[in-house]
Design a protein that fits this description.
Aspartate Aminotransferase, domain 1; 14 helices; 13% strand; binds pyridoxal-5'-phosphate
Length: 407
């Protein structure tokens, strides 16, 4: 077996299951889950309609007898390129032939990308590293380890506004680096990287020859309608870097369009890297079913449902903040659907007692981060995903408040 498998940590939800195994739930209170980051708003009807029409048409025309191509249909790549140009004000539209690749959700693509990019031989750089935020989406760490690289964590704390401090790394640190994962808007912190930070990182990538993988899957859920989060391709465009050299973004319909079950996302950026990644994926065997591709075209072409989605999250943030801000410390996230509040006692004990007394499930912050020399940035915090309907989110906030008042 691949010995690197031994270095993988259990997924946060495995740890959570273990933590809560013996918990006796209160019989009188219905369960409310704020633990899993899975959108619960309705999937857009127009996407469902396309999916149903397509599966019907494809089945009747024997389309199910054909393998879909890994590169995806031109119509989907065209819709994605046009969306990117509109959303990130790109003066030159990315070339759908060279700059765009549909993927079956960004999770698999974020993982696979490191396998294609990392050169684990020590010919060029000793001990290749992958730099990532901490707390993080655990796929980045597993992807780095299985690619034969060493994960390097940059702690995102209140003191640095929950963003990685790239200036804390030395030249030798950068020399080892082959890949940087960004997560903006951040999971779980909701913080957004500004264009200046992105441009600084691009300059560092040029100087030290590494690739930037920017996970932007929460970019369409944001608080201020006039301030959509910036993206890495936008930073490239502002630098006149229309080839997106060394830069790759990852976007998904899962959160934007409430379609986690469709498994649809895309990777876009540097054409040379993408060509190699396509080669890797051809062997990997990942191709999106045709009916999902057509449904995705409908989703990327529509913004109405995305606007409505943001409105619903805004309502929930405002209601929950009103209830919890007098009793809990947290910053308002710029984007995403998580709250990342501080806990007055250890986060794992808080999580267990909250479930036992109030039947509310959350995730202890420490399960979403790693221990480092300066501590675990998830300690004394919990992640609350405001994915349940408004009434349930309000009810959950009231119960959390009631629990806090007993401490
Ligand atoms: C930060 C982050 N990136 C990527 C993903 C993967 O999303 P998907 O595979 O549905 O596109 C998730 C899912 O929760 C996430 O939280």
């Amino acid at each position: 077996m691949n010995p690197q498998l031994q270095s993988l940590q259990p997924y946060p939800f495995e740890k959570l299951k273990h933590l809560l195994a013996d918990t006796v739930l209160p019989q009188t209170l219905p369960a409310i889950s704020l633990s899993v980051g899975e959108p619960k708003h309705a999937a857009p009807q127009l996407v469902i309609d396309t999916l149903v029409q397509q599966i019907d048409g494809i089945a009747q025309s024997s389309g199910l007898n054909t393998y879909p191509g890994t590169k995806g249909i031109p119509e989907l790549r065209q819709a994605i390129a046009a969306w990117l140009a509109r959303r990130f004000q790109l003066p030159v539209m990315p070339d759908p032939e060279r700059h765009i690749l549909p993927v079956n959700g960004t999770r698999e693509a974020l993982f696979a990308f490191a396998q294609a990019v990392i050169d684990p031989s020590t010919k060029q750089k000793t001990n290749p590293s992958v730099i990532m935020p901490n707390p993080f989406y655990q796929i980045y760490e597993g992807a780095a380890l299985l690619a034969g690289a060493c994960p390097v964590f940059l702690n995102c704390t209140k003191e640095n506004n929950f963003t990685p401090d790239f200036s804390s790394l030395s030249d030798p640190d950068w020399q080892r680096c082959q890949l940087v994962y960004l997560c903006s808007p951040g999971n779980p912190t909701g913080s957004v990287l500004g264009l200046d930070t992105l441009k600084t990182l691009i300059a560092l990538a040029d100087r030290h020859d590494f690739v930037i993988a920017s996970d932007e899957c929460y970019s369409e859920i944001y608080a201020d309608e006039n301030q959509p989060p910036a993206g890495l391709l936008q930073a490239c465009a502002e630098l006149g870097r229309h080839d997106f050299k060394r830069c790759m973004v990852f976007h998904s319909l899962s959160k934007r369009s409430n379609l986690p079950g469709l498994r649809s996302g895309f990777v876009a950026g540097d054409a040379d890297i993408l060509q190699q990644f396509l080669l890797y994926r051809t062997y990997h065997g990942c191709a999106m079913p045709l009916q999902h591709q057509w449904a995705s075209v409908t989703a990327w072409n529509d913004e109405e449902h995305v606007l409505d989605n943001r409105r619903q999250y805004r309502e929930k943030f405002s209601a929950v903040t009103e209830i919890l801000s007098p009793v809990m410390a947290f910053s308002q996230p710029d984007a995403g659907f998580y709250l990342w509040p501080e806990t007055p006692i250890a986060d794992d004990i808080f999580t267990r007692e909250l479930l036992a007394t109030q039947n509310i499930a959350v995730v202890p912050g420490r399960y979403l981060a790693r221990d480092t020399a300066t501590g675990n940035p998830g300690e004394q915090r919990i992640r609350m995903a405001l994915v349940a309907p408004l009434a349930q989110c309000k009810e959950a906030a009231q119960r959390i408040k009631a629990y806090l008042e007993t401490l």
